[in-house]
């Protein structure tokens, strides 16, 4: 009898967490049209208020990509990296990291930036991280098309593996949403978390194989770098666009990525739901 009671007591918290998760996503689904409108407004707010408007959404990352290309290809004369043109190797990794960096880097301040609507009775603040992710995704998709053009110009022919980018886009968005819910909720109460995230993302840029090949890192150190989930995504972009490798060809690493992403996703949803009732007290 005692064992049965303990089992029933364990089931209740699990059932409550599951019910809370279902309720959380039902709220999001019910507000899908609001998400679309807010995403469009967020995109317009960022870029259409300036003289050159949407041009700035692409000029800054394109300029950074051009500078890196000039330094390594023209200045340091890096011709090919892992048997592919350096510009193709660089751009495929860079657009993946930029998407993650832009979306996650903005997440700690999302709730505060929409404080004027968060306190409204019928507004669901849980949709705000999705709004930012969609806004960043719109720009990213344009860069995916640009990179396809760069690859063709670099004599990298299109292949069926290019369709695999859909899988990596889904994986990227899944990971971004988990981090965004977690960091946006914490950012309401701890303002410094935005600076911490910014520093971590800068370190992540240099620790991720964006412009350096993984072949230059000894295996005993490479295994630690692969703990970074963005490593999986950046390599996935290259495996889709350049190398022609399916994601199931490295099953253990894929399994690690999804376990890590699922933990972050569940943690993000749990923390956001727990802290959401207290947003109004702080904002």
Your description of this structure?
With 283 residues, the chain is an all-alpha fold. It is 75% helix and 1% strand. It contains 13 helices and two strands. It has helices at 2-30, 32-47, 55-75, 86-106, 110-113, 115-118, 128-153, 165-189, 193-207, 219-225, 229-243, 251-275, 279-282, and strands spanning 80-81, 84-85. It has a two-stranded antiparallel ribbon. Helix 3 packs across helix 4 (86-106). The radius of gyration is 21 Å and the shape is globular. The chain starts with a helix and ends with a helix.
Chart the SSEs and their pairings.
Layout: H1 2-30, H2 32-47, H3 55-75, E1 80-81, E2 84-85, H4 86-106, H5 110-113, H6 115-118, H7 128-153, H8 165-189, H9 193-207, H10 219-225, H11 229-243, H12 251-275, H13 279-282
Antiparallel strand pairs: 1-2
Helix pairs in contact: 1-12, 2-7, 3-4, 4-7, 4-8, 4-9, 4-11, 7-8, 8-11, 8-12
